[in-house]
Amino acid sequence: MTHESEVTRHLGKIIDGLRAKDLDALRELYAPDVVSFDVEPPLQHVGVDAKLKNWAKVFAIFDEVDYELRDLAVTVSAGLAVGHGFGRVSGTLPGGKPVEGMWVRATFVLRETDDGWVIVHDQASVPFDIATGKGVTDLEP
Fold it and tell me: Which is nearest to 106 in space by CA: 10, 22, 31, 36?
């Protein structure tokens, strides 16, 4: 198995953890000191507990959670990996209403450890309209 396929498989575990609403499984994917630039304020979330707090919010909103990761490209060199693509959280609200979610630009930085790969940084972002200053959330890959 190549390093690129190991990293791709590791990032795929995010999908499994979200669909299972399993914070413990997600915790194993991140470094304890992960820095996340997520779509929700503040500008950064530092540490795995802060990252998991964001995922816990998702779990509280949705009865069922889905996550897609498209067009993932991974580059590995010297024990570090960078992946980028497009991600979308979607699901079903209480009462059964489906929510398609929005596509975001997703970037991941991983470090190789003795126990495998861990995410040390991630970023989810949306482009914005310069004229209005508002995020553009209806784009699709």
Answer: 36
